[in-house]
Write a structure and sequence with these properties.
heterodimer, A: about 350 residues, alpha/beta, Rossmann fold, 2 domains, 14 strands, B: about 425 residues, 14 helices, 7 strands, about 40% helix, about 5% strand
Chain lengths: ~350, ~425
Amino acid sequence: MAHMNMVQALNSAMDIMLERDPRVVILGEDVGYFGGVFRCTDGLQRKYGEQRVLDTPIAEGGIVAAAIGMGVNGLKPVAEIQFADYIYPAFDQIVSELARLRYRTAGEFSAPVTIRTPCGGGIRGGQTHSQSPEGVFTHVCGIRVVMPSNPYDAKGLLISSIEDEDPVLFFEPKRLYNGPFDGDPHKPAVPWSTHPKGAVPEGYYKVSLTKAEVVRPGTDVTILAYGTMVHVADAAVRLAKVDAEIIDVRALAPLDTDTLCSSVCKTGRCVIIHEATRYSGFGAELAATVQEECFWHLEAPIMRVTGWDTPYPHAFEWEYFPGPARIAAALARVMEGT
Amino acid sequence: MAQRSRLHVPHPPARPGEKPDFSYLAVSPAGAVARPEVRAPAREIENLGRQMVRVLDDQGRAVGPWNPHLDPEDLQVALRHMLLTRLFDDRMQRMQRQGRISFYMKSTGEEAVSVAQAMALQPGDMLFPSYRNQGLFIVRGLSLVDLMCQCLSNTRDRCRGRQMPIMYHWGAGNIFSISGNLATQFPQAVGWAMAAAIKGEDRLAAAWIGEGASAEADFHHGMTFAAVYQAPVILNIVNNQWAISTFQGFAGGERRTFAEYGPGYGIPGVRVDGNDFLAVYGVTRWAAERARQSGGATLIEHVTYRAGAHSTSDDPSRYRPKEEWAAWPLGDPIARLKQHLISLGEWSQERHAALEKQLEAHVVACWKEAAGFGTLTEGPALDPATMFEDVFHEMPAHLARQREELKRLAQTQPTKGSEAERSLDTHAPAVAKEG
């Protein structure tokens, strides 16, 4: 077992898949010779050649469209969109084409494309390098949406995504690339080598694209979180001194409703956390699902703790970010009267 | 007085009630444009984007270096495909008017583009059509019954009732799925061609869009990627002068040809008489040969005219003169190929009339067969529960639950007037954008 940060884990996943499957190709801005602005594809072009690890023009719509065409022609493309904030020029190709190709041709055509893209804030990225647009894409039928919270899952989920028959939108919380982040920017950075999920097998393994994971068992309240917020939730639980059950949702679409709802039915309380804005965010879907499945078990209203409904402000990142204090306050509210 | 800029709003040369005016169209004489070596550098053949490659002259003779010198038998096959396309279109338009299908789009006047190009390419070449390329399917051999069943959304519909009429696809025939979102297939075709090159296959891709859709970002993505990677792809702009109600000036056609986009990207741009079967065939063969020799992509502008309405939801008499089609300087592609065959002594009015009668009967027979698989108003009908399939490779739990919900609903309601039945009965007016 090696220790890897998330960048190394993602790199290892792509390395293994390029080695195992000649159909796998990587394409994106700066991913080739340079190895990616976050270094996720470092060394892969040197190892597998420039026919399989391609630098592309700066045209996200073209990158996804080309990946679709490659997928139709029997390849398994892994496209990188350099920041999730840049994904919108590819929106039509993802929503109208990639997600619906199998459906509209009754299974005759499909494109097994994986789109990797770094998301989330906390890196002084302002409104154009901090967004978490997962909820924009979970609304689209026909595409899987996943977001890992640690190196072990990142590698296993990416291998599963590349092997999957369906298109996958793979969000990488960039604040977690180098270490677990608990929401306090003033503490010294912690490396992944100190975290159990930083222990990553060197070889091939998969993590299910359809399963959430209980990362902290508890009895008082269920916290539904994913990506960076899994670690922030953990800090908040220590702060609030409640016995919370933390679930890493991981697979946002399709959703592992059973794991989520059996936990809430057990605890009777639910707090939902994401970094993205609240209004029509993915938390609304989670809250609605929990309400439908667990209504008669609920002891308190379902709470959401999210980014405010504003663009991500450069100067006020930490006032914007749903940190441990805000989550702890929500936990205290749902526990009121107990 | 200070100088100010003024907004220029393009105007077509004639509106309803006015005399058609195609003086804006620069037409080269047949045979006048030189045919360069297929590996000529793009910047040395920029004239191809400004002139117009033509082979058939006004007397129906085939002249000049672009003449592909096809056997008369091949020309007769071509004429048959073009005529069948037109008769199929006419029949389907009538069926829409009778309420048997919800929507239709004819390719009348543009048949030479699809038929010549499908005949000029290899069966293994992958075609990424737009919505007025039904001739591609006809040449490649998908039966009219299959095309009709797609339009009928019936039990034999290859799309299983999921697409509007005319959004065909045919995997076995190497023809990609038609999208209602315009130009998306352009960069996809380039990606397909890139994959062919990566795999070292001797196959190329071809894609079509209208001149209107060349304004979409996807057109430019396709051109950029094709140029950068020298992808083996033929990129076609079918300039039929009209994008629903806006004339080609609204896509930038007033100050340059559409083929002239090519040299700006470093790709040869060839402007061809799109109603000249032989010219389209010859240019396509040139572009295909270039692609197969690692010469990369070619942009072809087919100058043609949309003789009919944009779709059955459109009424062109509200925005263009009725007489435009008759005044169109490049004529009717079927009439021109017919004239050529007659001038060769390989065809006659009698044979043409007989063929027309035979094909009409064939179309009617196909319609009867297709309607036997169901229409919008008569059974047999598809099972609505199939709508949950193919969203994902394997049906996820939430869709299985929704399918059960629909089935329960169908059981508790009488068949007539059920949710499913009502949704089949109400057809919102269907309008698609024109490229």
